[in-house]
Structure formats: C-alpha cells, structure tokens
Design goal:
Blueprint: E1 8-12, H1 17-28, E2 32-37, H2 44-52, E3 57-61, H3 67-81, E4 86-89, H4 104-132, E5 135-140, H5 144-147, H6 153-173, E6 178-185, H7 191-194, H8 198-206, H9 216-227, E7 238-241
Parallel strand pairs: 1-2, 1-4, 2-3, 4-5, 5-6, 6-7
Helix pairs in contact: 1-2, 1-9, 3-4, 4-6
Bound molecules: NADP nicotinamide-adenine-dinucleotide phosphate (NAP).
NADP nicotinamide-adenine-dinucleotide phosphate binds near residues 92 and 191.
Length: about 250
C-alpha cells in the first residue's frame, strides 16, 4: 500500500544498516527519499534499491556534525522536490571506552555527530516545514539512553540528549502541525554492533525478551508509522523498538 505517496523524506546515514533499511522501506511505500552519507559513493546500493522499488532518490553527501551539511541537504531537497515532509535523523557513531580511558575527543566526536548532528538537521527542516504547516521529524535514539551501558557514557549521553531535544521541539513546533519523536532501537545486527566485543554482544542478546536481535526492517516499520498519516497525532514521545531488551 502506498501509505507515503508523494511524501518527500530525508534520511541521514542511509548508506547501510538501519538507515538503509528505513530509506528503502519508505520508498517501497511510495515516498521520494533523499539519502545522505559521508560519501556519495557509499549510497549507490541504497539508491539502486530505491530505484528497484520504483521510487525516486536524491543522494547527498556531507558530515552531519557540520551545520552547513544540514543546510545544503535540506536546500537540495526543497529545490528538487518543492518541499520536505519528513526527516529521519539516523546517522550515528560510537567511540566506546571506559570512563577512565575515555578521551575528551571521543566524548566530543560522539556528541557532535549523534546529538549536534540531529540538532543541525532539526533546525534546517524547521523553516520549510513551518511554511508547509506539516512535517514529521524522527530522531533515531537508542535503548541505552534510558538504561545506560558501561563503556558508552558518551553515546548514552548523546542519545539521552535527543529525548530533551525532541520534547522541546515538539512543544515549539506542534502548533504548526510538526511532530517530533525519538525511536530507540535495541540491539540491531549492523556494522555498528558487529564492532562490539563478542562478550558484550552476548550479554545484550541474553536480555532480549523476544530472543533475537532486531533487524533494520524492525526499526523501519516504526519509522514508517510515524511518517504516515496514522502516526500524525503522536509527538514528543520516545518509542522503544527493542524486542523487550529494556525490560531487564
Ligand atoms: P552503521 O551501520 O554504523 O551506519 C551508520 C550510518 O551513519 C552510515 O550510513 C554512515 O555513513 C552514517 N554516518 C556516520 N557518521 C556520519 C557523519 N558524520 N555524517 C554523515 N553520515 C554519517 O549504524 P547503524 O547500526 O545502522 O545505526 C544507525 C542509527 O541507529 C545510529 O544513530 C545508531 O546510534 C542507532 N542505533 C543502532 C543500534 C544498533 O544496535 N545497531 C541500536 C540503537 C541505536 P557512511 O557510509 O558515510 O559511513
């Protein structure tokens, strides 16, 4: 069903993993999807999958920690398609280390990409969405923002920051018909999690009530719901999509 017909949606970090699954799923449901990664070449596979779904893509490159990347990306979408209906701020990184060994640089890099990068894109879409008096903004957070994770103090702090950012933005932008929410994945099998030591992966997997790691598609379904008319009365919320990992 073409639930997203004519929607123009920008997804950051769409070259692989969760962002790629989100972008292709949105395309399969009728959206035009602008996809961003640090290099255009990394987006070839995603754009091919979007074309195979019969949809239009717009590949964009840049480092999301730079405000100019967000400004240029949103301008490119508006120039190409006349407006922007959705943002999925998905791109993220980890730089794990125990607190005693964590450098200021590791802390700053993770905050700059995961939190500040999302802020840059939120700010950049605000004006065109306010003009349209409609829009759906989804930040991809993480279950660890709520429960913590040893070795990820920087990442947990950045992802927890998205909760406050989303709630405040939801209050500021609600009167203009713009929703702002966080979707927090649990343990999803991607490049990011395959980098974790095996013992840490096993410890996380044991906590998942549903007994299996999530897939990008598990997250894509929740994002699609918030980008569709069915999710239009939900704002300022943090939705856990974690297979019950956070239950204990
Ligand atoms: P991933 O496989 O490592 O992919 C990360 C994506 O972000 C890539 O497309 C990468 O693009 C892009 N990216 C990274 N830094 C960027 C930057 N500075 N500027 C622009 N693009 C950048 O990660 P993932 O597992 O799919 O994670 C996606 C999101 O879900 C992240 O926000 C992550 O924190 C969150 N999350 C993941 C899990 C999990 O279990 N996997 C759990 C909770 C939350 P390039 O091709 O340019 O490198």
């Amino acid at each position: 069903m073409q639930t997203l017909k004519n929607k123009r949606i920008l997804v950051t970090g769409a070259s692989r993993g969760i962002g790629q699954a989100i972008a292709v799923d949105l395309a399969k449901h009728g959206a035009k999807v602008a996809v961003l990664a640090t290099r255009l070449a990394n987006l070839e596979q995603t754009c091919a999958a979007i074309a195979a779904a019969g949809a239009e893509s717009l590949p964009l490159e840049g480092d999301i920690s730079q405000a100019s990347t967000a400004v240029n990306a949103v301008k490119a979408v508006v120039d190409a398609w006349g407006g922007i209906d959705g943002l999925v701020a998905n791109a993220g990184i980890t730089k794990d280390n125990l607190l005693l060994r964590m450098t200021e640089e590791q802390f700053d890099q993770v905050i700059d990409v995961n939190l500040k990068g999302s802020f840059h894109f939120l700010k950049a879409v605000t004006k065109p969405m306010m003009k349209q008096r409609a829009g759906s903004i989804v930040f991809i957070g993480s279950v660890v923002a709520a429960i913590g994770n040893p070795g990820q103090a920087n990442y947990c702090a950045a992802k927890a920051g998205l909760h406050g950012l989303a709630r405040s933005a939801a209050m500021e932008l609600g009167s203009r018909g713009i929703t702002v929410n966080v979707i927090s994945p649990g343990f999803i099998a991607t490049d990011m999690t395959s980098d974790l030591p095996e013992a840490a992966q096993d410890a996380m997997k044991k906590k998942i009530a549903l007994g299996r790691p999530g897939s990008g598609q598990d997250i894509a379904g929740a994002v699609r719901f918030l980008q569709s008319p069915d999710g239009s009365y939900i704002t300022g919320q943090v939705m856990l999509v974690d297979g019950g990992l956070s239950l204990g």
